Amino acid sequence: MKKVKILAKSPEKSLYLITFMLPFTLLRQTVKNNKYSKN
């Protein structure tokens, strides 16, 4: 909850955080897809 409040206060930081975390989330999804396809 605290993180959300901080992000809401500073949209620039939240935007940076989103752009920074987006590749990692996509990477996780691809890893999950690869695991499913192998099995």
Dominant shape? elongated
- End-to-end separation in angstroms reads 37 Å
Kindly state the number of beta strands. Answer: 0
Number of domains: 1
Q: What number is the mean pLDDT?
A: 78
Describe the structure.
It is a single chain. By secondary structure, the protein is mostly helical. It has one domain (2-29). It has helices at residues 2-9, 11-38. α1 crosses α2 (11-38). The radius of gyration is 15 Å and the shape is elongated. It starts with a helix and ends with a helix. The mean pLDDT is 78.
Please describe the topology of this protein:
Layout (H helix, E strand, L loop, with lengths): L1 H8 L1 H28 L1
Helix pairs in contact: 1-2
Give the gist of this structure.
The chain is mainly alpha-helical and 39 residues long. It has one domain (2-29). The chain has helices at 2-9, 11-38.
What tags apply to this protein structure?
92% helix, 39 residues, mainly alpha, elongated
